[in-house]
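Lab meeting minutes (informal)
Scribe: AK
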Amino acid sequence: MRIRRLSAAALVPVALMAVAVTSPEPRSGGSLAAVRDGPLSSELPGGLRRSRGPARYVSPEGSDRGPGSATAPWRTIQHGVEEVRPGSILVVRPGRYHETVEIERGGTRRRPVTIRGRPGAILLPRPGIGNRIPLKLGDGAHHIRIENLVIEGATGPATANIYARGGAHHIDIVGCLVRNSQRQGLFSERTTRHIRVVRSVFRDNGGGGGENLDHNLYLEGSHHLLAGSVVTAAPNGYGVQVYPVAADVVIASNTIVGNAADGVIVGGDGDGAASGVRIVNNVIVGNGRHGVSSYWTSRTGAGNLVHDNLVWGNGGSQLTGDGLAFGHNIEERPEFVDPARSDFRLRESSPAADAALAAYTLSKDLRDVRRPQGEGPDVGAYETQP
């Protein structure tokens, strides 16, 4: 099944009844009692510190022979990331940057590097054959914050808009739009750790591979976070795949809608398995197959929790699979504002309103609205405003 765009019809399957599911505890493994009444974000890994060093600038009208100042900016992002030092900020001015940015260095825990896009800053790969990847996070990339960039257009048989490899660690991706890759939106190798994707949008990634082989996010590695984001319209695969080797990955407070296969799949292959995955506070609606599922070839992962999500209108089962503990999930119409126009904000009457676990909620939603606005935070990427 191929779904390019979520339609209103996709959200209204005739045979589906709206049923609230409020099982008091997961079916197997794990406990929710410790987090049910926790404060905001207490179970979410924190982000990098702010960069407080000097700012340098990049502009399509600049020159890499200049000093990178506000009045004499550099021309390429690649030159900028090679020049900035720990604590510095690289400001990417509006424009289209056709280059492969390869980051092989970074900041420190106290002095991270920030790459900050201004509205209209778009990173695309250079034209050509083979795998053309806009952003590569290499073995030496660490303590880097990438914010407010549009990253798009990766091409090739084994490509991604953002490719994290080797020992890349402590990378924050904040407020970015990642779209229109031929294969994956984000791919992280199993040796990566502490990649934190927050308040971003992944959409329309995939379509160039075999059936169900392209995903908006393909996560391997450990201690990753996907939070407060919209993941939608992967035309040939899963919204999020956590497979085959991953540990302690948190997927929280996202809106995962209209992907061709499952909203989220957790799995393992051979001796590897995903363990300690927590899928919490998400709105998972209108995906072509299951809402959340699992896939194991031999060893089954342990400690995987799926709780306090709203799931509805997915083409197969809403929640299914071994190795996953389900609890406190809601199966009911989400009441989006205008799903036909991809407006996945919630109406005040939504069953997702005030229904999220505070301990797995960011302090602001995707639009920078403070949470909560009501008695409690809302499930999903958006906070309903009275």
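Next up, CB showed the second protein from the same session:
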Amino acid sequence: ELADVSMLRLTGNSATLHRLVQEITRSRIPSAEHADRLHGILDVVNAYPLGDPTDVRTWPRWTPLAEHIAALVDRADAAAITAPTARLMNQLGLFLQYRIRFRDAERLYRRALAIDEQSFGTEDPNVARDLNNLAALLQATNRLDEAEPLMRRALAIDEQSFGPEHPSVAIDLNNLAQLLQATNRLAEAEPLMRRALAIDEHSFGPKHPNVAIRLNNLAWLLQATNRLAEAEPLMRRALAIFFASLGEAHPSMQTVATNYWRLLKAMGRSEAEIEAEVGSVIGPR
């Protein structure tokens, strides 16, 4: 009925409310109820199982809700509601960054960082998370000099908060190591990567996808320093872990398979030998 009088536009299983109707509806909400309603909506969205925004398998859930979440966090921020606003800003920022919307993601990251610094102080783990997200975006947009001090600050916060063997510290170490590798400081990067690998193996066990990520990154560094024979078993192990935990169709699995193929090629293996070695891990292709 609403669609028949142009108050709603129907598209498949979704509906878009006319902007004028939105504004009229908002204007009729008593001002004393605004904050309570925003808190309620924030709680609902925060509890909804959207999943990891960096995992492409969750994108069908994220895509139709992203613009709604963007509008929600802006209104919540304007109303000085800090939680879970900052968390949602970070999650939405990750989704937008992986969709190559860097400018929108950076705005959200910087605002979340400011909110959390004001809410928790400058040495809180939430601040370390915000710093890592912002630094990763700065690295992705080739602002490495800006990214490095943020990564080092995040590492210091997490080591102080959780101790030197915590999985959050492994993430910080990995991020900083990759930046050091990108600036050709391979000798500095390698011990950080090895330490991150050791932490995750101890924390999650030897067959966890996080371990595969660390193995892949370390293998790439060894390949960059021409230690191909050292890199090969690490890359092979990473491939086996990803195949067992994520399946062949997952993008991370495809990336590591390509990396392993290129490594074997660099080692002088023939096409037939490469096919056989990759096939021994994931089956014939």
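CB comment: Residues 59-78 form the longest helix (20 residues).
No objections, moving on.
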